Amino acid sequence: AAHEGVRGIKHRPVAKLADVPLASTTYYFKDIEELIQDAFMLFAEKANRELEAFYSGLNGLIDRALVRGSLHSLQGRERLAAELATYIARYFVQQIRDNTSSVLTEQAFLAEAMREPGLEPLAQEYRKAWLDGVESIMKRLGTHHPRRDAALLISVVSGMGYDGLLFRERFSSSFVEETLQRVIGMLMGVAPTGGDVTAPETGNLNGTLY
After folding, report:
1. 10 Å Cβ neighbour count for 154?
2. What is the 3-state secondary structure (H, E, C) of 116-156?
3. Average pLDDT over residues 166-175
4. Are 64 and 71 in contact (CB under 8 A)?
5. Is the alpha carbon torsion for 66, 68, 73, 78 positive or negative?
6. 3-state SS of the chain: helix, strand, coil percent to 5?
7. pTM for this prediction
8. Whole-angstrom Cα distance, residue 60 to residue 177?
9. Distance between CA atoms of 188 and 142, rounded to whole angstroms?
10. CA 192 to centroid of chain Cα atoms
11. Of 58, 79, 148, 162, which alpha carbon lies 20 to 30 A from 140's?
């Protein structure tokens, strides 16, 4: 899916990649749609396991902040917002740079779900699991509208993800971190303390994105 797109998936290349006889894929899957759905389910299960570790890291930062009593002071909340932004940015940029195939596969499945009704319920469940996880983080941070705040943060990260894929070599982790610090700080009710993150024009291919 990462290389050909979901619509490029065929029994023969899948069998070759899996190093199994072609008859195996046609025997176990009644059609290519069923194969794609099962592939999406397998991908989602793996991605959700990885997200659990990601959420565990975020919760660890919140746990330490609670021990410090950071959520009860403006300075403490600013510090936690910065720590969360740093953690998320490092994870996010690492995924873009070192796990590109998985990120492209996710985008391919989600894009196909917009066209293919059979994939839509799987895509909705996949996104809901992500939203539920971020919502639980927002609740611990005491934001006013955890569900909507989670959706906003996910939208920001997803949008930067497209830039990360398009401008991989020039994608700045500092921009991601500063942007996330501003957004998380806003959701936590503290003034953004990050630097000026206004992006220059991206039309100059000789320049540096962000």
Report:
1. 16
2. CCCCHHHHHHHHHHHHHHHHHHHHHHCCCCHHHHHHHHHHH
3. 77
4. no
5. negative
6. 75, 0, 25
7. 0.73
8. 19
9. 7
10. 22
11. 162
Are 199 and 167 in contact by the 8 Å Cβ rule? The answer is: no
Q: By mean pLDDT, which of 67-81, 125-139, 179-193 is the weakest? A: 179-193
| C-alpha distances in Å from residue 163, one per residue of 100, 139, 177, 201, 208 | 13, 29, 14, 13, 12
Residue given tokens 């320049």 in the structure block: 207
Residues 94, 177: contact at Cβ < 8 Å? no
pLDDT for 208: 46
In which residue are the tokens 């330490």 written? 64
Residues 206 and 44: their CA atoms lie apart, in Å, by: 37
Please tell me which residue, 148 or 38, carries the higher pLDDT value: 148
Instruction: Count the neighbouring beta carbons within 10 Å of the beta carbon of residue 180.
Output: 25
Q: Which residue has the tokens 């509208």?
A: 145
- Would you say 8 and 113 are in contact if contact means Cβ atoms under 8 Å apart? no
Q: What angle do CA 187, 192, 194 make, to 5 degrees?
A: 130
Q: Which residue has the tokens 């899957």?
A: 29
Mean pLDDT of the chain: 78
Cα(129)–Cα(154) distance, rounded to whole angstroms? 12
